[in-house]
User: Fold this.
Amino acid sequence: MTRCFAASAMTLAAVPLAAASIDGFSPQRLSDIDKAISSDAFEGRGPATPAEPKVIDYIAQQFQAAGAQPGGDMVNGQRSWFQSVPLLRSEIAGTPSLSLNENGTVVPLRQGGDMAVLAPLNGAKQVDINNAPLVFVGYGVAAPERNWDDFKGQDVHGKILVLLINDPDFEGGEGDFGGKAMTYYGRWTYKFEEAARRGAAGVIIVHETAPASYGWGVVQNSNTIPQFDIVRDNPAAEHSSLESWIQRPLAVQLFQRSGLDFEQAKAAARRRDFQPIPLKATLSAHYAANTNVVTSHNVVGLLPGKTYPDETIIYSAHWDHLGIGTPDARGDRIYNGAIDNGTGIAQLIEQARVFAHGPRPDRSIVFLAVTGEEKGLLGSKYYAAHPLYPIGKTVGVLNVDVMNVWGKEKDFTIRGTAKLGLLDDLIAQGKLQGRYYTPDPHPETGGFYRSDHFSFAQQGVPAISFTPGLDLVNGGTAAGEAHTEDYNKNHYHQPSDEWSPNWDLSGMAEDSELLHQLGLHLANSREWPNWSPDSEFRAARDRSAVERGGPATSLPAPAPKKGERG
Assistant:
């Protein structure tokens, strides 16, 4: 059956399109949508929770009111507003029993305090690990194309891998992994995947704030709640029995009791000749897990193109957040996610409205609100593997994950340092606004791999995650950096990420207009953007060229008009 909109879903009073708007984008409407979707009524937007129907029905209602058509799964011969996303859900039952035996000293571990253990996603309903040996494997990287192997042929079956977050270049800023800019090898997702491929019993990632780019509170809040994965034929091939993090002081103690210096071991791990180091320690872990398959949903709006309806430009943003979790110092348990990513959803709904009220473009526009980003990009990963519209004829993806609420910016950026024609087009459109592009100021955070555009990039689709700049009109870069640092330290993935009437969304409206003009340019052109020749995603894009009727081409971006600022 087609889902019906829940009676409890909120609606917004009609706001004239031109009211308090910037080129059609209304800061007031953006604020109203964010206020609604990040309210306590939506319970932190946890996927596959009782709140999900309210959330997705609200988004679908807003798409419909904006003028979009349903663009999701076919139901009874018609498109619905939703794409079903089957997920494996796993939750630790009760309090896990965790302990280290450090060279004869037994150390009990507190879940969420000393250690953050994820609920198992390998299909197991019971985890019983008894004195599994620990081995330090540096950064846990096997990268033959970089002549790098942290394992050196050592058999790690049945062992617990202790490893570092980020990649070997982070500390020194230069080397085989692109310097400070994090590669995918630095992401925790890669490290879990590699451990499973090698048959390890488990993984312990040592948390340090700088290389992780977030504090322990983020690890605690994100990993001690129910976990999700897309449904897999062989989940044990992708996940070990134990996937976990520990705080740095515990790691220092662990190494000391093995007769090792933690900092010296880290330094050794930065060298190509690093050898795995057995620790004089074992780990025991016992806990049950409640697992089941649940269905979450992407919400999909569509504006069919008038000339090439089978060619699509996708605007995407994730609707989910962390739901209800550990209370903060105020006792607040609802993780509202007003900035992350209520702002992105507000922009997505406004894009649908502005496109629907303008001339219909030649190519189709898809508005994709995805689930499960906070659980590992699951909704976008599912769409990219089960596309509603052909991947090879997807012109590009314009993703937004966290927008600016502090006023207008002179600049803009994207997550990561990828080179692609889509970025050239964005820079050209930005110049028409009198703004300039700044490369990702913090590539060491691995932002490219932390948002939903990455799922499409892996399939070869040119994809960017637009990010606000830091050079604010009022206050400059110092103010932008201060706002960002405050948000990351005090609000990111915390209950205090709440809507505020004091925000200035004029910059968010201007950013939305920039993304609109980029999508409009792509939708009315015959351009097929591509990745740079040396990109790891170029081959997949080129393989799909046959779907587009010939070899992929990357046409030059439009130049600023004469007399306009460049």
Observations:
- Residues 88-291 form a domain with the Glucose Oxidase; domain 1 fold (CATH 3.50.30.30).
- The longest strand covers residues 277-303.
- The chain has two domains: 27-67+304-325+333-477+503-548, 88-291.
